Amino acid sequence: MADKMKAVGLYEYLPIDDPKSLQDVKVKKPKAKGKDILVEVKAVSVNPVDTKIRAPKEGKEEEPKILGWDAAGVVKDTGDEVELFQPGDEVYYAGAVNRQGSNSEFHLVDERIAAKKPENLDFSDAAAMPLTTITAWEALFHRMGISINPEDNEGKKILMVGAAGGVGSIAVQLAKYAGLTVIGTVSREETAEWAKKNGADYFINHYKDFPEQLQEHGIQEVDFIFCMNSTETHWENMSEVIAPQGKICSIVESKEELDMNLIKNKSAAFLWEFMFTRPIYQTEDMIEQHRLLKETARLIENGDIQTTATKKMQGLRAETFREAHQIVEEGKMIGKLVIKID
């Protein structure tokens, strides 16, 4: 039927090895209204947020809940308030976690959080970028207030905790573009190689003492820390190496209370980054996500940064997405996993 579309969704929150955890479904094809654009989805990527939302918990859905917050595709229709796009435009975006996701043939997204995809990337490579790029960009340039101008960052250092993951892969590139000295935490040779390829200058092991390892590189303290892995595990280490009046930003909720007194005497700042804040709360500056994705496309087209896609799969099928979720849940992904929608 013309008003129906294929999707992958869930009714219950189950372990990923349960065949019912993600299912092939057919749902009503959405219509664009207001500031929404209707996108024919060409590729998506799977992020840890997908697996966290799907993870076992109480509650059932009467209508299938569709996951997926990273997509690239073609605009098919626009709402009556849309000003930035027209049908035929190729776009990329991360959507909003409080709306249906992109693991479907067609998807609605607010124009203020989408942008035209980089012209030199195919849909799969473009779909790897939005969620992690928005997260890294907001953390670096909006939350911690780092200048994107390299001349402003001479001699400044940033520690990236989890430098080879999805967010780390683009955060390292953006920090290097901004002229920062980048120290990445890794635990395996292959993750170190990947982070080095993206521009990291030094490496330390995130399972070992931070101050001691930094001193081996002649570094006593860092101006900024971007934490993308287990905030509570690394809190004491981060508190020790952050410079007076430095800034720490994390994207990982803490499982324990953090002792803020550890950074009090340094007048250091601790900040959270959640890239869905702007679309969830419909903030007045939502358009910033459009702007940063537009600027990212320019940087990619100029060769200043690269796609972070490392694993590619194919097919809008529950079986494919269950396999993808299993891979992401293992916690060993380097870069991003992308699924091409056929």
Automatic annotation (TrEMBL):
<keyword id="KW-0479">Metal-binding</keyword>
<dbReference type="GO" id="GO:0016491">
    <property type="term" value="F:oxidoreductase activity"/>
</dbReference>
<feature type="domain" description="Enoyl reductase (ER)">
    <location>
        <begin position="17"/>
        <end position="339"/>
    </location>
</feature>
<dbReference type="InterPro" id="IPR020843">
    <property type="entry name" value="ER"/>
</dbReference>
<dbReference type="GO" id="GO:0003723">
    <property type="term" value="F:RNA binding"/>
</dbReference>
<dbReference type="Pfam" id="PF00107">
    <property type="entry name" value="ADH_zinc_N"/>
</dbReference>
<comment type="subunit">
    <text>Homotetramer.</text>
</comment>
<dbReference type="InterPro" id="IPR014182">
    <property type="entry name" value="ADH_Zn_typ-1"/>
</dbReference>
<dbReference type="Pfam" id="PF08240">
    <property type="entry name" value="ADH_N"/>
</dbReference>
<keyword id="KW-0862">Zinc</keyword>
<keyword id="KW-0560">Oxidoreductase</keyword>
<protein>
    <recommendedName>
        <fullName>Zinc-type alcohol dehydrogenase-like protein</fullName>
    </recommendedName>
</protein>
<dbReference type="InterPro" id="IPR002364">
    <property type="entry name" value="Quin_OxRdtase/zeta-crystal_CS"/>
</dbReference>
<keyword id="KW-0963">Cytoplasm</keyword>
<keyword id="KW-0694">RNA-binding</keyword>
<keyword id="KW-0007">Acetylation</keyword>
<comment type="similarity">
    <text>Belongs to the zinc-containing alcohol dehydrogenase family. Quinone oxidoreductase subfamily.</text>
</comment>
<dbReference type="InterPro" id="IPR013154">
    <property type="entry name" value="ADH-like_N"/>
</dbReference>
<dbReference type="InterPro" id="IPR013149">
    <property type="entry name" value="ADH-like_C"/>
</dbReference>
<dbReference type="InterPro" id="IPR051603">
    <property type="entry name" value="Zinc-ADH_QOR/CCCR"/>
</dbReference>
<dbReference type="InterPro" id="IPR036291">
    <property type="entry name" value="NAD(P)-bd_dom_sf"/>
</dbReference>
<dbReference type="GO" id="GO:0005737">
    <property type="term" value="C:cytoplasm"/>
</dbReference>
<dbReference type="InterPro" id="IPR011032">
    <property type="entry name" value="GroES-like_sf"/>
</dbReference>
<keyword id="KW-0521">NADP</keyword>
<dbReference type="GO" id="GO:0008270">
    <property type="term" value="F:zinc ion binding"/>
</dbReference>
